[in-house]
Design brief:
Length: about 450
């Protein structure tokens, strides 16, 4: 009898241990990344793979998920959507170029750690959306010609529901949505759909960097950059016209290919003597193309050096890395007939050296939105600080319901050029706190 009781006790203990292990190991093992090629040591889990959003059309979206470096169970869950019309790789641009934990080293082909990765503060879920962006795909090719913002928002919502079924541990975590560029459409539309759906999401806020909000206002603000930035004038090869009134024509005449319109004071990547603006930027860059006659007259340097904070060839290095077969295998990615390079509260934040979607336009639109919503300014336009240096400028409406912030010295992809200042802003956003004062 005593022996039977001992076996019963042992059975209960074993059953309890199995339940504990099942609770701990509920993440999808098939999606776990053991290690990416050339990856340094790390202390957090990574996952990537596909989530089906339309079984009938065989449409699946690809994700890359990095847990927070410490205490992931209690840290927020942040969805990242990149833009660059109509879609840009959130893994290529968002993770490896901007604020993920690693970036490819062009010389060795290995990955190096980023000191100011956003997974220091949160669990980051990078989503390649809509289908055909990055490694996401649709078996029905007609989808690519019919997709629009409404379909994209619906697919993104279905993705979140199905992804959380894979990762139920994050169902109750504070949830935020971030993005940049054309995600000025994706992010608020998804947030609105979540609220309207009544589904259980612990949505706390959204933030968008250098967002395309309203085409006319945003694109017509480029001439203000030409007229207001002395640094921009000094970067130009030639003489700037008095007013830049017709920015689409003037910038093409006055800029060489060796000035990046997304970062007018930054260096550019030089490969084989030619500037590389990156496949991730091509959709917007067409209005800044240099005339062939001026291009032939240029006598540029054959090499430019990057500084310690910015890898000017990050996009090119990332494209090369993600097109490697061993990398795609480690990511559990399928290449369906195209290269990765082909698809590459509500605060709005801005890199102030972006001439394509300048902060002047967004600040105008945010002021208009505040008036429309009846939100009064609670913190007037002021400088904010990163350490002892000015990090940028900010204005807050109605406590922290709506805010605007610029990041001094940052480009269109702000975390790539000002990583430390971007992390300060990201941390304040998650905590719902004002940006620091000196």
């Amino acid at each position: 009898m005593q022996s039977q009781q001992q076996w019963m006790v042992m059975g209960i203990i074993c059953a309890s241990l199995v339940q504990i292990l099942m609770a701990v190991e509920s993440f999808p093992i098939a999606d776990r990344i053991t290690s990416l090629p050339g990856q340094p040591q790390f202390n957090f889990q990574q996952f990537s793979g596909y989530v089906t959003v339309d079984e009938k059309q065989q449409r699946s979206l690809f994700y890359y998920f990095v847990e927070a470096q410490t205490q992931p169970a209690s840290k927020p869950l942040v969805l990242r959507l990149n833009g660059t019309w109509p879609g840009c790789s959130s893994i290529g641009a968002g993770a490896f170029v901007e604020h993920g934990p690693f970036r490819p080293n062009g010389d060795s082909g290995n990955l190096v750690k980023k000191e100011y990765s956003w997974n220091r503060e949160a669990n980051i879920l990078y989503l390649e959306s809509p289908a055909e962006v990055g490694f996401s795909y649709s078996a029905n090719a007609s989808f690519y010609t019919n997709v629009n913002d409404t379909i994209t928002a619906q697919d993104n919502l279905i993705f979140l529901q199905n992804w959380l079924a894979k990762f139920p541990e994050y169902q109750d975590n504070d949830f935020f949505i971030t993005g940049e560029s054309y995600a000025g459409h994706y992010v608020p539309q998804l947030a609105q759909l979540i609220i309207q759906s009544g589904l259980k999401f612990n949505l706390k806020g959204i933030t968008i960097g250098n967002p395309l909000l309203e085409l006319g206002t945003d694109f017509n603000s480029g001439d203000l950059v030409c007229n207001s930035s002395e640094m921009f004038r000094e970067a130009i090869r030639g003489i700037i016209s008095p007013d830049c009134a017709f920015v689409n024509i003037q910038v093409s005449k006055e800029l060489t290919d060796f000035i990046d319109p997304y970062n007018v004071i930054g260096d550019v990547c030089i490969l084989n003597g030619q500037p590389q603006m990156g496949f991730l930027y091509q959709p917007f860059r067409s209005r800044f193309q240099t005339l062939s006659s001026l291009h032939s007259e240029s006598n540029p340097p054959t090499q430019q050096q990057s500084n310690e904070k910015e890898d000017v060839c990050a996009i090119e290095n990332t494209i090369k890395y993600l097109n490697r077969k061993d990398v795609q295998k480690a990511l559990h990615a399928q290449v369906v007939g195209f290269d990765h390079k082909h698809n590459s509260g509500r605060p709005e934040f801005y890199g102030d050296q972006d001439s394509v979607i300048p902060f002047f336009g967004t600040r105008t639109l945010i002021n208009g939105l505040a008036k429309e919503l009846g939100l009064n300014t609670t913190k007037s336009y002021r400088a904010w600080f990163e350490g002892k240096q000015v990090g940028g400028w900010t204005q807050v409406y109605s406590k922290t319901q709506l805010s605007f912030a610029s990041i001094r010295g940052a480009s269109h992809t702000a975390p790539a050029t000002q990583p430390e200042r971007s992390l300060v802003l990201f941390k304040a956003f998650l905590a719902g706190l004002p940006l620091p004062i000196a």
